Amino acid sequence: MAFKIPPDFDRFLADHDGVVARRQAAELGISVEAMRHRVRSAEWQRLQRGVYATFSGGSPRETQLWAALLRVGPNAVLSHQTAAELYGMLKQPSPVIHLTVPAASHPARYGKIPGLVVHRSRIIEATRHPVLQPPRTRVEDTVLDLIESAPCFKDGYDWICKAVGDRLTTAARIREALDRRSRFPGRREIERALGDAGKGALSNLELLYLRGVERRHKLPTATRQAPVNIGGRTIYLDNLYEDYLVCVELDGKAAHPEADQWADKRRDRRNLVAGSIVTMRFGYPDLHTDRAQCQTAADVARVLRDRGRRVGRLCRLAGCPV
Question: Is residue 321 part of a domain?
Answer without folding.
Answer: no
